């Protein structure tokens, strides 16, 4: 059985948890990760498991994507994945966004939904394209905002874990 070769682009808890889960899957090989710096949680876990690290700036270019990548996954990534980089991966690039796209695009999506008093929020897995959070939605999950939720608890306890859950479900279909 051929392993699915992937690159994870992202940072912090979400990218670290995605990498940790992928490392337990016999049918997945993470051939590189791309955090914004070498001290991020994603980079630290990758170092422990001897996974190559490609630090990105605000853009991920084709030169930064290893040859042979089947798919690029973006998890809490604030960098733009260029078309040439997406095209280098056999299955393109898929990202997680913490809103029910097309609502609340951009990096302040959770804050915008919270500030607007939305009671139903969620996360979306989508195919990356040339826009910001504009690609075809592949999967979504919604949750209820409870009275005691804060902006931080909404992200940490609900929306970030939804991202991991959506990635797992998607990867199991490949």
From TrEMBL:
| Domain of life according to the entry | Bacteria
Q: Which GO molecular function terms does the record list?
A: methionyl-tRNA formyltransferase activity
Annotated signal sequence is none
InterPro entries linked to this entry: Formyl_transf_N, Formyl_transf_N_sf
Q: Which UniProt keywords apply?
A: Transferase
All residue ranges annotated as the Formyl transferase N-terminal domain in the record:
55-156
Asked if Cytoplasm is a keyword of the record, the answer is: no
The protein here is known as: Formyl transferase
- Organism field: Moraxella lacunata
